[in-house]
């Protein structure tokens, strides 16, 4: 995630240190939606991630920030 400058993009979008992007009230409330947001970042930033990489990133974000079931 650091390699793809995620934090820099999040800071531009939500300000502060960018961490507010992880818990907007009710915005991301399913694992499928979380994966979709990662895919959106992949597309928007032209990262060239494969589907399994998108899924892995979503899993890490869920483990570390969202804790969705």
Describe the structure.
It is a single chain. The two termini are 22 Å apart. 57% of the residues lie in helices and 0% in strands. The chain is built from 3 helices and no strands. It has 69 residues and is mostly helical. Helix 2 packs across helix 3. The chain is globular, with a radius of gyration of 11 Å. It has one domain.
Secondary-structure element pattern, one letter each: HHH
Per DSSP, the total helix count is: 3
- Mean pLDDT comes to 87
Which regions are unreliable across 5 or more consecutive residues at pLDDT < 50?
none
Distance between the termini: 22 Å
Chain-wise SSE layout:
Elements (H helix, E strand, L loop, with lengths): L5 H9 L16 H14 L6 H16 L3
Distinctive features:
mainly alpha; 69 residues
Outline:
This protein has 3 helices and no strands.
């Amino acid at each position: 995630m650091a390699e793809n400058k995620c934090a820099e993009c999040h800071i531009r979008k939500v300000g502060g240190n960018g961490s507010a992007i992880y818990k907007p009230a009710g915005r991301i409330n399913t694992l499928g939606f979380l994966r979709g947001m990662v895919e959106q970042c992949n597309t928007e930033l032209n990262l060239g991630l494969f589907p399994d990489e998108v899924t892995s990133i979503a899993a890490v974000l869920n483990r570390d920030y969202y804790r969705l079931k």
